[in-house]
Amino acid sequence: MLFDWDEEKAKSNLAKHGISFDEATSVFDDPLFLTFADPEHSVLEQRFLIMGESARGRLLVVSYTDRQDITRLISARPATRKERKVYESEL
Fold first, then answer.
1. I need a labelling partner for 27 at 20 to 30 A (CA). Which of 33, 34, 43, 79 fits?
2. pTM here?
3. Bridge partners of 16?
4. Is 86 left (phi over 0), alpha (psi -120 to 50) or beta?
């Protein structure tokens, strides 16, 4: 799987949420990840949310879009308590 992102957005995301986009890509390797359509943010392109455990063991929510064969990351943040409960209920 190939990933892409805006470097300025990646720096901003790291400062705001403490999550690097490098770490965020590892969520896609979680065999138990959950993915959802994100119609609220899909005005110009179809966006999705993926929730899963990162390689560092943190439960993250990552916003992304697919552009041909490349997955473009938009943002990444720790899961909220409510999101964590949803993830754990699917285990």
1. 43
2. 0.93
3. none
4. alpha
CATH architecture of 2-89: Roll (3.10)
**pLDDT tens digit sequence for 30-65:** 999 999 999 787 778 899 999 999 999 999 999 999
Q: Which residues neighbour 46 within 8 Å (Cβ) at sequence distance 6 or greater?
A: 37, 65, 66
Q: 77: closest CA among 12, 3, 5?
A: 12
pLDDT, tens digit (0-9, with 9 covering 90-100), for 60-85: 999 999 999 999 999 999 999 999 99
Instruction: Give DSSP secondary structure letters for 5-29.
Output: --HHHHHHHHHHHS--HHHHHGGGG
Angstrom distance (rounded) from CA 79 to CA 50 = 10
Pairing of strands 2-4, 70-78: parallel
